[in-house]
């Protein structure tokens, strides 16, 4: 992993950001951020095995995007510190926090120990990333509680 961000790193971040602006990707990101709050591996699997549905497409699109972007960091193509800036990668932390509580079970059920592994490695590589994950997990729990309260009323 490169030590100091370069102009090339900044250009790659801008290109990755630009990809997030594509219309269908915006819908997929919104679904992950605002609507998709799986409570278990089984809930996740229900969407993951609903091939051809919009939600399945969105699940794979956003998960694949962040796994690909994280691979750039792991392979030394993109500066880790620049990538982990909350303004860029906050969404990655959010989606990972949503599946983190049942990630081990999810990998077992799918039979893929690599599932979300690039994201996990990038997030947990630094103390800052691990702390940010814990912060985001708490925020996701608050969001889940508020959603449950709204549904109950």
Structure, explained:
With 153 residues, this protein is mainly alpha-helical. It has one domain. Helix content is 75%, strand content 0%. The chain has 9 helices and no strands. Helix 2 packs across helix 4, helix 3 crosses helix 7 and helix 6 packs across helix 9. The radius of gyration is 16 Å and the shape is globular. The mean pLDDT is 95.
Q: Structural class from helices and strands?
A: mainly alpha
Please compute the radius of gyration using only Cα atoms: 16 Å
Proportion of residues in extended strands: under 5%
Low-confidence stretches: none
Could you estimate the helical fraction of the residues in percent? Answer: over 70%
Shape: globular
**What is the residue-averaged pLDDT?**
95
Query: Describe the biggest sheet?
Result: none
Overall domain count: 1
How many strand elements?
0
Give me the number of helical elements: 9
User: Whole-Å distance between the termini?
Assistant: 49 Å
SSE pattern, N- to C-terminal? HHHHHHHHH
Task: Please tag this protein with its features.
153 residues, mainly alpha, 9 helices, 0% strand, globular
Q: Topology, please?
A:
Elements: H1 7-19, H2 23-35, H3 41-48, H4 54-74, H5 80-83, H6 86-99, H7 103-110, H8 117-124, H9 127-152
Helix pairs in contact: 2-4, 3-7, 4-8, 6-9
Q: How do you describe this structure in short?
A:
With 153 residues, the chain is an all-alpha fold. It has helices at 7-19, 23-35, 41-48, 54-74, 80-83, 86-99, 103-110, 117-124, 127-152.
